[in-house]
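Write out the 3D structure for:
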Amino acid sequence: MLRENQRHFKFDWITIILFLLLLGFGYFNIMSASHVGEITSYFDTDQLYGKHLVFIGLTFFLIVLILSFEAKFYEQFASVIYLVAMLALIGLFIFGKDVNGARSWYGIGSMTIQPSEFAKFATALAVAKYISDLQTNMTTIKDQLRVAAIIFIPALLILLQNDAGSTIVYLAFFFVFYREGLQQVYLVIALSLIILAVLGLKFGVVITAIAATTVLTLVYFIRKKKRGSLLQYLVVLIVSVTFSYGVKLFYEHGLKAHQQNRISLWLRLEKDPSKLERMKKVEAYNLIQSEQAISSGGVSGKGFLQGTRTTGKFVPEQHTDYIFSTVGEEWGFVGTSAVVLLFVLLIVRVLYLAEAQKSQFSRVYGYGVASILFIHFTINIGMVMGLIPTVGIPLPFFSYGGSGLWGFTILLFIFVKLDSNKINEW
């Protein structure tokens, strides 16, 4: 009995330690980015960092609660958890509170709760439940459409709440599908569509058509035995050009002005100097200040609480989406490299543990966890450094906010619990 209990509580401490390091480092950067006046106490709840410390305290209670459930609970009740999460998203249209133009929060007194942060782990559980079903075959169109619907529903609800950043996160499940047998052709199609969209916006439909024709001609002559008919290549070319033109139309007529400007700045589409200067003062202001803060940190940084741009509040939303700029200014290249390394180690560790699972449900969920963390980590840091367009998306375990912190904690520690049970999954 004692040996069984020891096995039952054999959690992966490498994952837990990486989580604690990210959580602790994130707290001190939130303190730097959010404090007003002189810091007299780390526990000052009148300051944002003091409130975040309360969130961290509740996080440990949440971890104990998550680990106290049997691992089978998460598989058996995955559908129920998903349904509750979807109802919470739907309820926002009636009872939700508008914050910064997005109807994504419930107001509870002075606090706000963002259901989209919890919908991520609920969707990951639902996807793992469906894919691990004995009747599911991911090579069939029927099951591919059904599991896509599981992801599409929360993504659409969140998009309708004007939260495009959180919607993008659901693309993470593409990696899960690919691991579970989705044909390689889907990966080729996805990459091709991204390239066509960028080419269409940057160089126009004509240049895109010429480029697509060139590539298809090369493929035709390279694939001697499986080249197919000319009609197939013509259809692919027509679809490619049509898609490229459709993206340009959507960009010009479907996106809001600030969204157009963000993409325009990223791809350097604007040629009018006066308009470009105005855009830099409005849409690119956060990014420019963030880049300057990061670059000013140099190799070793200016030191904790010594960042002039951070303490001067030059970077808007620095304690949330732009928290990485604080790391760059106060901890320099050394600090930013350490943060990147910690995230990479955590993601790789989750993938390693996922492959070691004996249950398909646990493996699929593990890949969901790693993919969601990867998307958040990549997009947030890429956005802060100007490598991708500005998207409102938090850095896991770093950005200020209870909903985000608790959502990511639940996401990760459900997997920690599942992993601890793999000995009993024979």
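The chain has one domain: 2-182+281-424.
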